Amino acid sequence: MTKLRIGVIGVGGIATGRHIPAFLQLPTVELVAVSDMNKAQAQKVAKDFDIPYVCEQLEDMLDKIDALVICTPNKFHAPIAIQALNAGVHVLCEKPMALNTQECEAMTAAAEKSGKVLLIAYHWRFMKESRAAKQLIELGEIGEPLVIRIQSMRRRKVPGWGVFTNRDLQGGGALIDYGCHLLDLALWLVGNPKPAEVSGATFNALSRQQGLVNEWGTIDAETFEVEDHATAFIRLENGAVILLETSWAANILADEESLSISGTKGGIDVFPLRINKAANGMLMTNTVDFIPEEKSYDLLQAEHFVACCLGESTAIASPQESMHVSSVIEAIYESSTKGASVTINSN
Ligand SMILES: NC(=O)c1ccc[n+]([C@@H]2O[C@H](COP(=O)([O-])OP(=O)(O)OC[C@H]3O[C@@H](n4cnc5c(N)ncnc54)[C@H](O)[C@@H]3O)[C@@H](O)[C@H]2O)c1
């Protein structure tokens, strides 16, 4: 059996914690090469996971592989993905797709031209609650979605490691890093309507205070430059709306990740999964007590990417869908700066 040869670039936390262990479980895959601007890290990872090649240059790696997993900081997603696609290599790229819509468009164009797979690793789509919710919505349980509420809230968990608070490398803070997951999931659940208009506001007053109480390490208040809290009202082209709130730091009671959709026939809460309805003259809630889960979402995502590369499946997320997520994020930042709503002209 010919195996899909995979390389990984940027072999830090997410590559070693999620992607490499997942791909190593697949018999149809051979992990052949790693690359990292920190050569010692690349060598360590190659040794730890028994991966044959450490490549200093991306070109050297592209000769050896059929597919590339990109786990670098966000700034490098677009240039690396475009170079790989132009070389005829499939790409699985960590979220967010890129720093802005313009970069996403260039990546989408490269994917279309090459005919290769470009999948963005929005792994929340593979969670059991998400897949079950998608099924229930497609079965018509809630009717037409009207109002979608997303909360990805952390009370005091500003990442005190890596480059997460570096605007140049990441493009923003809590929204582009954390809120993006449920935004992508919400758009997918309601059938990917195009975003039309955004009014947003971002804040970083808490992280700019000296001596922030923080559960995830220490940050420098003086140099903190991204948002730790963002809110937005998002109009979709089909008339539905999204109310979004996300934070790394906020004066709230507790951390919370929730996504709920109110539709014409019923409503759905995804975490935990339940349907809210009016029926037989009563208001009732159907709670889902058990959803079978044979495999972790990391493994499902890896399997899905490989199946797409082998032509056995169609990607769960098109590049355009991931670009819509980025266009909303970009519009929230722009709206916050302008203090006015922003229109999105989605392709
Ligand atoms: N899906 C998720 O839940 C999730 C969670 C965390 C991070 N991420 C994403 O994964 C990516 C990486 O995050 P991380 O937490 O692994 O960061 P990290 O800092 O742990 O690892 C990044 C690695 O990339 C290397 N690197 C930096 N620039 C490079 C370049 N130009 N070429 C090659 N290597 C380079 C660094 O040396 C480092 O080893 C980011 O895009 C982030 O948004 C996703």
Automatic annotation (TrEMBL):
It comes from the Bacteria. Residues 131-268 form the GFO/IDH/MocA-like oxidoreductase domain. InterPro entries: Gfo/Idh/MocA-like_OxRdtase_N, Gfo/Idh/MocA_Oxidoreductase, GFO_IDH_MocA-like_dom, NAD(P)-bd_dom_sf. Pfam families: GFO_IDH_MocA, GFO_IDH_MocA_C3. Residues 4-121 form the Gfo/Idh/MocA-like oxidoreductase N-terminal domain. Gene3D superfamilies: Dihydrodipicolinate Reductase, domain 2, NAD(P)-binding Rossmann-like Domain. PANTHER family: D-GLUCOSIDE 3-DEHYDROGENASE, UDP-N-ACETYL-2-AMINO-2-DEOXY-D-GLUCURONATE OXIDASE. This is Gfo/Idh/MocA family oxidoreductase. It comes from Lysinibacillus piscis.
